[in-house]
Amino acid sequence: MKNSFFLVIPNQKHDPDLLSSFAEASLTQWITELPTANPGLSTRLFHDLLIEMNELSMPAQKRLDALELLRHNFLNIEDYLRARLIQTGFPKSTNDRKIMDVLISMEKQFTIAYWMIVRELTRRDVGWLQGKNTALAIQRTIRGLSSIVVTFYIMNTPVPDWIWIDLHSLYRLSVKVKKDTTKVADEACTLGKTSTAEDCYKQILLFSLADPSGLMQKEFRQIYNFIEKINSLVRIESHEVDEQDIQCAILMDEDSAPFFYTDHKTTDSAMMYLDLSRLYKACGQPDKFCSEKEPRYSPIDLQRHKADKLPAELFHYLLERWQGKPLQGATLFNDRLDRFIAIGLEPTHCLQNSNAGEEQENLEIATQSSSDRALSCQFETPGILSIGSLVSCRRNDAPVNLRLLGVVCKITLPKQDNKLIFELNIIAPQSFAVSYVNIDAPADAEPQKALLYATKEGDKEKSFIIMDSFLFKDGDVLRIFLNQENFPIILRERKNIGLGYWQFECRRLAEKTIASDKKKKGYDFI
Out of the domains of life, which is the source (predicted)? Predict the structure, then answer.
């Protein structure tokens, strides 16, 4: 690999005075004086320093020493900027896009600096000590390019040209110089403190195969870390894998991500394959990797201190993607007619309510069907939609209360504007607006809003209630208000179905049962 079309090295200038400022003592002093309490200023100063360093002619060893000294602070700034980007949904605000531009530029400049070292060290035979530097520089460059890919995935925008072919070429270079499995220290790792060029390469390949368009932004780090855990179960082969019915291929000479195919006649001398057979076998024991108790869509980050296991729903999502099953929403729009949508439980409840009146005018958003599975919309309000958002929709010629209920399962942003394309998993073809209170609530308690729907399987009919409170549990009893009647229900089969939304199967109770339960209270004199 002689050149990179993405990591373009700027023209170099010779400046001995400026070069002295990158000595270890001077650079350490500069880092100490960074205004960390002002992240905007420290980001600006760090960004300017990277640009200045890349334009300065510098010995490879000195450049590597400087980069390693700066790396801890760079990773902190990168984490901070990413944390800013994942605070809201889509479409992203103008300010978010500015943050993204700065983050991408910093990641690119940092990666270019390591690429400059790789190019210099691999142009000729080097000794043992410099050989270790070669392994480090290649690993850091692959890690840097991978970070850029992840940032574009976070923003749901297409990965720029030339990044994938650079990743493939760098991996091939590491194999050529026999540094692909050389372990180097890496504080970006969460499990061990070492990593290899091959580890980093496999990590971004598996992350890409997970189809990030179906992931919540807060799940990215969790999944990237999980892949680090199972990385050793995946191997890169030069031939098809007999144990796999569907092959996972990498076109090493093409600027493209890995992909699955079933046509075994496909051959290419530059094609490599991912052997996922050991991963499939290990995932046959899901209890090792996931927890049924952890909800995927909880707005509270319950996994922050439980990174060892994924929520079961998220784990099965990953497994399906790694088995080559494409992420697709339900086929709901075969008629290709436009739809009006409402986002969230409260707007949907209002539109389902026969007493909604004039309030409904500002609750719906017009969308267009872009396929039999997807809707598209030019949203004006930033952050309005996320994976896991509860959405109800109706045909533009249908009554307002005739609404299908679903959850957003896929979001793509083909261009950097506010036009989103999204797909839904269906919950119910029709739901009803209800309200509820605790069974022992006082008479003046404010009823809370919920949605009710029913399903029928054979002769069995089940009713389900959807609410936006996570406080209830199986066995709780509520009083439901539906149209002109009210009655008690008992909750069971609690399930987190969307971002902040919980579903229970509910069964109607007789009033006598509730009355007898109410008598079982404590002594009023204690």
Answer: Bacteria
Q: Please tell me the distance from the alpha carbon of residue 506 to that of residue 352, in angstroms, as a whole number.
A: 20
Confidence (pTM): 0.92
CB 168 within 8 A of CB 110: no
Residue (of 449, 404, 396) closest to 431 by Cα position: 404
Exposure string for 181-213, b = 16+ CB within 10 A, e = fewer: ebebebebbeeeeebbbbbbbbbbbbbbbbbbb
Is residue 76 exposed (0-12), middle (13-18) or buried (19+ Cβ within 10 Å)?
A: middle
pLDDT in tens, 60-101: 999 999 999 999 999 999 999 999 999 999 999 999 999 999
Residues across the chain: 526
Sign of the alpha-carbon dihedral angle for 150, 299, 311, 291: positive
Which residues share a beta bridge with 376? 368, 421
Q: Are 154 and 86 in contact (CB under 8 A)?
A: yes
Look at residues 343, 304, 298 and name the one whose alpha carbon lies nearest to residue 500.
298
Judge contact between 379 and 366, C-beta under 8 A.
Answer: no
Of 374, 388, 300, the C-alpha closest to 343 is 388
> What is the rounded distance in angstroms from the CA atom of residue 83 to the CA atom of residue 73?
15
